[in-house]
């Protein structure tokens, strides 16, 4: 075995996690005011824009890929479903962890289960976050059972992990359908939440079709996110991913982004506010920023077949889409949302510390999962292939 | 039959007795502030200041006005905060007040973001924080008392009454001395109407009141939320249908392939 160099990456991630935890404890003792620049004029800040709005949208790879493979039967993408579902699950876990910091009294979160205000979009968001996180955990659980099955620990070995594995496999399709339904509702309800602010959200972004725009952009960013993280994980863990899979995903994206652009421009035209994209300085710069970076450039790049064959271009174009989407979510939930007069907001360093700590958490879990669980390699086990092709009740492979 | 208050800025002398009465009745602590070069203090509403008098020096139609403006929860007819609250901790009562229940809230602050008047505040420095806003002294009112601020008002700038009657009275006041008022009863239609009504000698935007349409701000949300059940059922049906169709097509293809194989054998 080659000598290991000092694990710089692991060290940095651990430090970020520890700082995040320390800030979290400080918050529970001293209140939100002590660790954030949030105020009555800007009650929602970095955590809502980044962890909730971006986090949920970037988790869209889970339901788009699971839907494509298990419902539309596009077997080609089977190899990226597990990483996508894992990323989605971690994304949602991060949302929940961020809310544990952001909510004033998170220990009362269960109130949402008994006190329903079915007219509130945030009620819908809360319900979807809870149930979809559970669905994602179940969707991912076969990988955990397979991992446990291979374990040599005597205690773990005594349990027959085939049984829960088979149970989950049996309800896989209903799970995937539930995931698609919950995601459709959830992605769009984040847009519905902003419909409450017709007077404070800038006219370039406020539209009654915000829920539809949110859903469309989430579906577009799902495959881009899968390209992004599977490219990174192949680099880090040294697997090889078929360029066919990447370029196939890339080919679908321009259609969805095109639809999104069409909705956006058509809506502005319909209400006679298209002129704002030239006149509403400086907001129009934000608008053009997200449209050029996250929509127009990727549509052009992914429409050229040669570009789709180049791993680097595919990767960087996906980065553009992800950045553009984050730009959009920050615009609608922070930058283009009016504040009460007399207030200013820029996130406190401890707000950044919380968000960075949570991202570091996720990266560590992804690293551990790839190290100990069959995330990518489960593809190649004989049984898995046999199961997929013949629908046989196979045993779990004891892969050496 | 809902209760409302009419605030007439031309009768207000800026004594802030209402502000003090509110603090006393609600047992709110003082706030440390710095001199901002104005009598107006504190500068903003907060979780320990539920109402305040705003001071404005306004030039309008070539005339100088030193005008006052009382700020507190408007107690909307269609409150965005109550529609936003995921757990229903905020509610519009039939009598008029929009009330808040500590025992249900978990501190998401969506009400603060949703409010078109920018009113609800949060206890930022408490480890057990709640939302705070004017309660319209719902407790006092249900015991036959006027709200603390109204009781304290010595000039008659604040008047409690039936909303419809107060609107009629406000119209009469404008008609009786049109040179004294702008012809606008703020709160009659703003955001679908509010339980607090305002008369002013200068346009309301110059008093720092937001310019709002007459539709409730909750309209689009109501439409979107109404679409949730059909979308839920629709997506579930379509997805199951697609799954069934794709599987069926694949089975037929496989059967055909098998049949061919047998023929060639």
Work out the strand percent of chain B: 15-25%
Cα end-to-end separation of chain A: 18 Å
What is the domain total for the residues of chain B?
2
Largest sheet of chain B: 3 strands, mixed
Indicate the multimeric state.
heterodimer
Whole-number radius of gyration of chain A? 22 Å
Distance between the termini of chain B: 88 Å
> What is the H-and-E element order of chain B?
EHEEHEEHEEHHEHEHH
Q: Beta-sheet strand percentage of chain A?
A: under 5%
Can you characterise this structure?
The complex is a heterodimer of chains A (400) and B (265). Chain A is built from 18 helices and no strands. By secondary structure, chain A is mainly alpha-helical. Chain A has a single domain (43-338), classed as Formate dehydrogenase/DMSO reductase fold. In chain A, helix 3 packs across helix 16 (311-335) and helix 4 crosses helix 11. The two termini of chain A are 18 Å apart. Mean pLDDT of chain A is 89; it is low at 380-400. Chain B is an alpha+beta fold and 265 residues long. Chain B is built from eight helices and nine strands. Chain B folds into two domains: 3-79 and 116-217, Alpha-Beta Plaits; 227-264. The mean pLDDT of chain B is 94. In chain B, the strands form four sheets. Chain B has a three-stranded mixed beta sheet, covered by helices on one side. A two-stranded antiparallel sheet of chain B has the order 2-3. In chain B, strands 4-5 form a two-stranded antiparallel ribbon. Chains A and B meet through helix 1, helix 2, helix 4, helix 7 and helix 10 of A and helix 2, helix 3, strand 6, helix 7 and helix 8 of B.
């Amino acid at each position: 075995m080659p000598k290991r160099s000092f694990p710089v990456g692991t060290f940095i991630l651990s430090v970020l996690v520890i700082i995040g935890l320390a800030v979290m404890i400080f918050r529970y003792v001293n209140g939100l005011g002590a660790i954030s620049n949030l105020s009555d004029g800007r009650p929602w800040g970095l955590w809502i824009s980044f962890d909730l709005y971006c986090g949920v949208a970037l988790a869209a790879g889970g339901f788009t890929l699971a839907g494509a493979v298990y419902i539309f039967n596009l077997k080609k993408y089977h190899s990226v479903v597990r990483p996508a579902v894992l990323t989605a699950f971690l994304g949602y876990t991060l949302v929940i962890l961020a809310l544990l910091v952001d909510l004033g009294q998170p220990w009362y979160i269960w109130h949402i289960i008994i006190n329903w205000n079915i007219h509130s979009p945030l009620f819908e968001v809360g319900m979807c976050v809870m149930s979809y996180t559970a669905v994602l955990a179940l969707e991912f659980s076969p990988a955990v059972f397979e991992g446990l099955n291979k374990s040599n620990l005597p205690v773990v070995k005594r349990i027959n992990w085939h049984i829960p594995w088979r149970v989950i496999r049996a309800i896989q399709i209903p799970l995937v359908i539930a995931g698609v339904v919950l995601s459709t509702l959830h992605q769009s309800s984040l847009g519905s939440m902003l419909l409450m602010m017709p007077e404070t959200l800038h006219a370039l972004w406020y539209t009654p079709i915000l829920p539809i725009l949110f859903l469309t952009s989430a579906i577009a960013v799902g495959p881009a996110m899968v390209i992004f993280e599977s490219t990174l994980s192949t680099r880090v863990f040294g697997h090889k991913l078929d360029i066919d899979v990447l370029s196939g995903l890339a080919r679908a994206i321009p259609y969805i982004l095109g639809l999104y652009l069409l909705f956006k421009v058509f809506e502005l035209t319909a209400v006679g506010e298209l002129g704002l994209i030239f006149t509403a300085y400086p907001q129009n710069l934000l608008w053009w920023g997200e449209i050029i970076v996250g929509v127009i450039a990727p549509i052009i790049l992914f429409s050229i077949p040669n570009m789709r064959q180049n791993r680097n271009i595919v990767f960087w174009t996906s980065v553009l889409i992800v950045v553009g989407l984050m730009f959009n979510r920050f615009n609608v939930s922070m930058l283009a949302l009016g504040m009460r007069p007399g207030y200013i907001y820029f996130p406190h360093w401890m707000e950044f510390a919380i968000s960075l700590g949570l991202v570091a958490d996720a990266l560590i879990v992804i690293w551990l999962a790839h190290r100990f669980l069959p995330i990518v390699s489960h593809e190649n086990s004989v049984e898995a292939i046999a199961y997929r092709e013949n629908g046989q009740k196979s045993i779990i492979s004891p892969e050496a | 039959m809902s209760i409302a208050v009419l605030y007439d800025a031309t009768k207000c002398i800026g004594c802030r007795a209402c502000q003090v009465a509110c603090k006393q009745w609600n047992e709110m602590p003082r706030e440390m502030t710095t001199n901002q070069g104005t009598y107006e203090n504190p500068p903003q509403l907060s979780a320990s200041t539920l109402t305040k008098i705003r001071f404005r020096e306004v030039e309008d139609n070539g005339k100088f006005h030193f005008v006052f403006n009382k700020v507190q929860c408007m107690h909307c007819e269609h409150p965005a905060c109550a529609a936003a609250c995921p757990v229903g901790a905020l509610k519009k009562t039939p009598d008029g007040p929009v009330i808040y229940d500590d025992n249900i809230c978990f501190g998401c602050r969506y009400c603060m973001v949703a409010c078109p008047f920018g009113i609800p505040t949060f206890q930022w420095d408490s480890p057990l924080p709640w939302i705070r806003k004017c309660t319209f002294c719902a407790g006092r009112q249900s015991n036959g008392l006027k709200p603390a601020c109204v009781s304290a008002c010595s000039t008659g700038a604040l008047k409690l009454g039936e909303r419809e009657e107060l609107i009629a009275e406000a119209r009469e006041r404008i008609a009786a001395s049109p040179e004294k008022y702008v012809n606008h009863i703020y709160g009659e239609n703003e955001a679908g109407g509010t339980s607090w009504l305002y008369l002013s000698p200068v346009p309301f935007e110059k008093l720092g009141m937001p310019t709002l349409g007459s539709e409730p701000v909750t309209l689009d949300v109501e439409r979107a939320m109404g679409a949730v059940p059909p979308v839920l059922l629709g997506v579930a049906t379509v997805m199951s249908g697609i799954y069934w169709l794709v599987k069926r097509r694949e089975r037929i293809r496989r059967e055909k392939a098998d049949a061919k194989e047998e023929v060639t054998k």
